Amino acid sequence: MKRWLFCILLGWSATSGRADPTATSAAVPDLPPPYAPGAPVSGTIRIWGHGAFANRVDFIEGLVKAWEAGFQKYQPGVTFDNHLVGTAAAVGSLVAGVGDLALMGREIWPYEIQAFHESFGYAPTGVDVLTGSFDVRNHDFALTIFVHRSNPISGLTLRQLDAVFSADCRRGGPPARIWGDLGLTGAWHDRPIHLYGWPIERGFAQYFEDVVFQGARKWNPSLKEMPDTPGTTGGATDGGQKVLDALAKDPDGIGYSSLLYQSPDVKVIGLGTDERHLVMPTRETVLDHSYPLTRMITIFLNRAPGQPTDPKLAEFLRFVLSREGQAMVEGKGGGYLPMLAPFAAEQLKKLN
User: Fold this and answer.
1) What is the mean pLDDT of residues 198-204?
2) Contact 232, 108 (CB under 8 A)
3) Helices 311-320 and 61-74, interaxial angle, to 10°?
4) Element (DSSP H or E) covering residue 23
5) DSSP letter at 219?
6) Alpha carbons 195 and 165: distance in angstroms, whole number
7) 125 in helix, strand or coil?
8) Hey, is 295 helix, strand or coil?
């Protein structure tokens, strides 16, 4: 907690994540208001989903337990039954009726929503409780767009990005297949665009489809898919690094990956909804959600339309999205970032 407060006072460095003495007050994270306990609640909250890997790697379980312990100081009548065995079990626990909260370690997939809807006749309610990391492996890092360092392009709109990578181009306009389609002139105008990315069955690709393709599922067939080497734990054998390694050898290439990975022969470019508002990925632009490919950690629950949220679930989520709950993220989150006050307030509306 002391280190968190120290970082708040000094501000975050955009490049290292360490405290920056030159940062201005504008960089101070705007955490949500303190938790104000409502009426006493009691009972057991059953949480399934994202947690730790084989009891060796703690992705989020330590943070969840800290939330629970902090909440119980205010609401001692509530106990917890955790089954943090992996995201694959999360939504299924709601469908089977054995879970109350489904904690996701990635975005929910369409077939999971469909399975829930077929069981109950409505979609699950999702509440974003954390901002994904800037560049930490297995912590929902923001996706970033890279090109070869010789490429003069500095940024793309989401419409242009959709035109490059998708087959349907739902954002409008013709497909972009040469660099001239993206505004480059001279010797670059007629050069072909070569695409690189993770395999399209990966969660990264499905997130890209949802946000960039507006839900379309057809990719430009020229995409070269870069899978992880089986058993990889990071570095050169990760698909994300393979994307950058390929781009380093291909001046005509563009790919999506993460700033977790590095190569001196590539550069990252900005993204935006229009050419006047291109945003570079930094910890600050991920934290304030201005970078378009910022990801979220979401908890889903079963709440029928027009019906109130179970009081103990609503109260716990109110604590998670309070100043106390979000201040725990720095010490226990492993790279996840907090939800700032405006976003926490929007998520809490879903419980009303």
Assistant:
1) 94
2) no
3) 110
4) none
5) B
6) 7
7) strand
8) coil
